Amino acid sequence: MCDQETIECWKLVVEIATLLSTIVIALAGFRISKALQDRNEISQRKSSWLEKWADDFYKTASSFNESATSFLFLYLRAEWDETGDSEKGGTVDIEKLSPDPSRSLELIRELNLGWHEMYKFFGFAVEKGEGLKTAASNLLTEALTWHKSGAGDVTAFRNNQMTFNKNFMEVHAELLELKDSK
After folding, report:
1. Structural domain tally of the chain?
2. What are the pLDDT digits (tens) for 140-154?
3. Rounded CA gap, 92 and 112, in Å?
């Protein structure tokens, strides 16, 4: 059997071991907590960055779309004022409508600038970016055709703009999904 002094010695050893294990567990918990906080901060920064890019893309693509609408209205305004027909489709003789050439050129420049600004986003939308690139190019090409040729197809322009908007929506959704998946 053990004497009282040995028992007291073992109690002291157990208390010290318990205290040391508590300290080790607390330190390990602190390190784990710190690592989780660091990862959370990185994730939040990355999410904020992706959200900012999705917002910037939305503004850029919206501006491109508004420029396209302004371009169409520039060419159709005279006919719509005359006939009141906002459902105009088919081919329009642009020279007959005589839009302001300097305003037309200004809108072409806005569309070119918008296309250039959107270009930086195409690569972030791995699945849908190429479709948007094609749709934006087609809409820009349609506007250039109107501007250069003196004739344009309203239905084709509207279809190109609708295709652009569909792709715009899909790319924006993809950019937001990137944010949610990180």
Report:
1. 1
2. 999 999 888 866 888
3. 23
